[in-house]
Amino acid sequence: MTLNPVCENVETSEGVPLTVTGVAQVKVMRDDKLLEAACQQFLGKKQRDIQNTILQTMEGHLRAILGTLTVEAIYRVSFYLFHQL
């Protein structure tokens, strides 16, 4: 599933507001415990609801990461951000 996280007006560690967009491919891992957790979380939900839940979670993690970095660090290591989600 492809998702497009968007974080608008997120403050960096220096208080500079940024808008950041991205693209992420997500899937459920084959680990039995993770698969069971995904089933419990999403069983019976519509695909749109599942996508929204995952997208909101990803955007929250992205905001948290951006809040710890300077503007320069974000531009320098932007590829790193999506590996942390």
From TrEMBL:
One of its GO terms (cellular component) is flotillin complex. CDD domains: SPFH_flotillin. SUPFAM superfamilies: Band 7/SPFH domain. One of its GO terms (biological process) is regulation of myoblast differentiation. One of its GO terms (molecular function) is protease binding. It is found in: Membrane. Keywords: Membrane. Pfam families: Band_7. The keyword Membrane applies. Residues 9-76 form the Band domain. It comes from the Eukaryota. InterPro entries: Band_7, Band_7/SPFH_dom_sf, Flotillin_fam. Belongs to the band 7/mec-2 family. Flotillin subfamily. PANTHER family: FLOTILLIN-1-RELATED (PTHR13806:SF46), FLOTILLIN-RELATED (PTHR13806). This is Band 7 domain-containing protein. The lineage of its organism: Eukaryota, Metazoa, Spiralia, Lophotrochozoa, Platyhelminthes.
